[in-house]
Amino acid sequence: MPRSRRTWSRLRRAAVVCSATLTVVAAPSAALAADNLPPLRPLVQDLKTGGQACATGAERPYVSESPRVTAVLYDPESDDQPAEGNFVQGEFEAWWTDADGAEQRRTHTSYMLPSGTSAYWQLPDDVPPNTVVSWRVRANDGKAASAWSSEDGGSVCEFVYDDESPVKPTVSSTDFPEDSRTARVGEYGSFTVDSASDDVVKYRYSYIGSTYETASPEEPGGPVSIRFLPVDTGPETLSVQAIDRSGRISGTVDYRFYVAAGRGSVAHWNLADPAGTTSAAAETGPAARAGTGVTFGAAAPSGTALTSTASLDGTGHGFLSPGAAATDTRRTFAVGGWVRPAATDAVRTVASQDADGAPGFTLGLRPGSDSAPVWSFRIGGAQVTGGTPETGEWAHVLGLYDAETGLATLYVNGHEVGTPQKAAPVEAAGAFQIGRARGAAGYRDRWQGEVGDVRVYDRVVVPAEAAELGARTARLAGHWSLESAADGASPELNGGAPLQLSDGATIRRAVEDDCAVNPDCVPSTDHPLVGDGDLTLDGTTGHAATDRPVVDTGDSFTIGVVVRLADSDPEHPMTVLSQGGEHADAFKVRYVPTQHEWQLVVTGADDSGAAETVVARTAVADGGEGQGQRLAVVYDDATDQIKLYLDGYTSDEATATFHGAWHSDGGLQVGRGHVDGAWGEYLRGSVDEVHAFSGALNQSDILGLGFGTEPCVC
Q1: Residue 370: DSSP 8-state
Q2: What letter does residue 702 receive in the DSSP assignment?
Q3: What share of the chain is helix, strand, coil (3-state, %, to 5)?
Q4: ∠136-141-146 over CA atoms, to 5°?
Q5: 436-443, Cβ contacts within 8 angstroms, sequence gap of 24 or more
Q6: How far apart are CA 70 and CA 119, in angstroms?
Q7: Could you count the other beta carbons within 10 Å of the beta carbon of residue 487?
Q8: 534 with 484: CB under 8 angstroms?
């Protein structure tokens, strides 16, 4: 008895590639001749039209050229002949009705192929366009043929060849009229895209600098609506193409419009009112009544336009409210401001708006999952958290609810934190609150600390705007050109604290020569690093220092310097810059010869045993030659990151997260640092162009340091 038919997937083997002139000759065995089993009927799921699944009727594929049709063919094994040793060929038929009503039929027989492989037929070029073409296939092993793929419960396959590309689509918009300036950053609008071709199934579109996206009409040839959120000002172009059922693509239509700056806030309180004031004047919206626990005239974050803020005492009287709603919480809105918490031990509310016995939203801080505080934005059952609130540290917090996407997003210091969450806000038609949130039994979760520049928007605040609101401009805190010295001190160019020079520290001046007029003159090779002078240190006792701190090491700062080591192979580590306290450096920059690298070392406390965080840039000691190396240190309190720059650039290895910044009270040190609680690591070499800033410079600003001029801080 012949064996039963087995699972044919195991029969697949590498296909035999046949050329048009190749003839396959195989002598059938006696068993095959005697016990031949006919091939299996090709299965519909194994048939493809131009790579698309076999289908009929409304599901039939449309193709842009005469397609290749394929079929997987199987011939079962006999008693003595395994199936993978069997060969089989495909017999294809295709037919259609021409314009005169006559049936046209074409046939093709493939080469013999191993059982389980694909046979194909590239249909002829005379297949007519816009006509339903049907095809089927059967398998033949040279002795017997299978049933057709359309028989015994199978099906024919159909397709339509489309030889015409769709016409260009049209684009219109009432929100963003072409060549107009009505579009605004942060406000959604729609475009209507349509095509005169009735077979368009998709539109492909993009904006300047963006990747392609697609939109599909409900019915072929119908219009689509494309939503757009402008995120930047200036000219914008929407480019669209139509794609029909066969995959043919139309020409491109460009729709040009202009995006203006976003609308300002609908409510804005600077909270920079004079001390003793009982209400906060509004830049926009109504004035906000202040409780008796509010004190105006408090400190403001440096590097911002604020001159002062309001201090809230955390009691039932520490609040401000205009007595009315500031926004519709069911629609898109954003709320934010500058804050400095005096306490982070409980839920603290920066802003909220009253609903029925509860707040419609809250923006503030709360204990996190590990009890450490986090910034928080809560609305409609959703909560987004992130960032690290620190007592006494300024932060800009902003919560955004986008009704278009349904997402709540939180920004801290201009950076998105946490993960946006889906929200379903409820109506909150009650009063807007600064410093408290409504509860079932009254107000609660009161803010303790400073608040300033509270703004409410009725649109999306885009990431670039959030970054601008949370930015703090770096300000020059000191510039020592080290060109001269008087009474043992080198002056700060703007009248600030001078650098006092110790024994072993001297200002070296450029040597004048007459080489311009004397042909026998030998030019000096011993030039200062930058300009007409620099600071030379002997590596033993030489250093320079200010008598007070130059930067607040507990806040964002930047310090740059140009340095050239005197030796190509220094004997020990040498510190070029540091600032700290009595026992340790809050930061120091040193060269470590055993590792051939500059290191930025920061500590978490004024303790000789304090833990250190170290980042580094590889560099070769210059040995008293060349233009020196430009170093810069950046601590960004907004992102809690430290960075070390070498010649204007940093790297991943020179960047780290650091949460332990502290306010040092010692002066800036040039040429030495703390080692085990005492001074050491004296530098032997030359130092020039020391710049110090309150605030974190970006890389483009860093590139300007060390050239003898005031860098542009933009």
Answers
A1: T
A2: H
A3: 5, 40, 55
A4: 40
A5: 436/318, 436/319, 436/349, 436/352, 437/349, 437/352, 437/359, 437/362, 437/364, 438/352, 438/354, 438/355, 438/357, 438/358, 438/359, 439/357, 439/358, 440/357, 440/358, 443/316, 443/319
A6: 6
A7: 7
A8: no
Interior angle at CA 227, CA 221 and CA 232, nearest 5: 135
Is 609 within 8 Å of 627 (Cβ atoms)? no
Question: In the block, which residue shows the tokens 């080591």?
Answer: 565
The tally of CA atoms less than 13 A away on the side-chain side of residue 102 is 3
Q: What is the DSSP string of 290-310?
A: E-TTEEEEE---TTSS---EE
For residue 379, the SS3 value is: strand
Compute how many other C-beta atoms are within 10 angstroms of the C-beta atom of residue 253: 18
Lowest mean pLDDT among 339-348, 526-535, 546-555: 526-535
Q: What is the dihedral of CA 559, 561, 565, 568, to 10 degrees?
A: 80
CA distance 248 to 162: 8
Instruction: Report whether 661 contacts 602 (CB < 8 A).
Output: yes
User: Which residues, 6 or more positions from 164, have their beta carbon under 8 angstroms from its beta carbon?
Assistant: 129, 248
CB atoms under 10 Å from CB of 281, counted, come to: 13
Backbone angles phi, psi at 5, to 5 degrees: -75, 135
- Write the CB contacts of 165 (distance below 8 Å, at least 6 apart in sequence): 244, 248, 249, 250
* 605 class by beta-carbon count within 10 Å (0-12 exposed, 13-18 middle, 19+ buried): middle
- The DSSP string of 432-491 is EEES-EEETTEEES--EEEEEEEEEESS---HHHHHHHT----EEEEEE--S--BTTEEP
The larger pLDDT score, comparing residue 33 to residue 645, is at 645
The DSSP H or E segment spanning 378 is strand 373-379
The dihedral built from the CA positions of residue 666, 672, 674 and 679, taken in this order, carries a sign that is negative
Q: What is the 3-state secondary structure (H, E, C) of 481-530?
A: CCCCCECCEECCCCCCCCEEECCCEEEEECCCCCCCCCCCCCCCCCCCCC
Whole-number average pLDDT of the chain:
91
Q: How far apart are CA 132 and CA 63, in angstroms?
A: 11
The structure tokens 């060849």 sit at 161
Q: Which of 291, 349, 297, 342 is nearest to 320 (CA)?
A: 291
Tell me the C-alpha distance between 541 and 204, whole Å: 70
Q: Which of 77-81, 356-360, 514-518, 676-680 has the lowest mean pLDDT?
A: 77-81
CB-based contact 617:644 (threshold 8 Å): yes
Q: How many CB atoms lie under 10 A from the CB of residue 59?
A: 10
Task: Examine the pLDDT at 83 and tell me if it is beyond 70.
Answer: no
Residue 179: predicted pLDDT: 84
- Comparing 422 with 509, the larger pLDDT belongs to 422
CA distance linking residue 690 with residue 482, whole number of Å: 8
The SS3 of residue 654 is helix
CA 2 to chain centre: 65
Q: Name the DSSP class of 8.
A: G
Cross-strand partners of 140:
89, 145
- Rounded Cα gap, residues 150 and 135, in angstroms: 9
Q: Which residues contact 21 (CB under 8 A, 6 or more apart)?
A: none
Stated pTM of the model:
0.81
